[in-house]
Amino acid sequence: MWTLLVFQLLWTQAVVDPLGEMVARNFVDHLANRDLDRTTALLSAKVNFDGKVVEGEEARSAFLQRTFAAHPAAIRFSRVTVMTGPQAVARFGRPPARLGTLNLDRALVVLARRKIGGLVLVLEEEDKIPGRWRVVALTD
Asked: Is 2 inside a domain boundary?
């Protein structure tokens, strides 16, 4: 009886796409290492940085470069948790309005914990290329 119950609980939970999780963890790693080129490559063409929408490769790169320059201290993440959009909404509620319209039904949400505070990323799979996950929003 217990085996059936555990199986049903595990079966009904949404599964995180392994490729999306890999992209998410790589983004956090590149961000912590201040690797501007690789971090920028994993951003979507249009990214919402905590309410500020940035479009274009040069604009995204410049924004990240300014952000890195403004925060010279080392970036260390103690724990990274990846979950589906519906799991995140069920656990934490709807995202803040400043992040704009997000398709959380088809998204991954990443919680990167720091000693104080943390970072929340939203990744969406691009329509034209299945399996290509990109960061569309960041907030703290």
From this structure: no
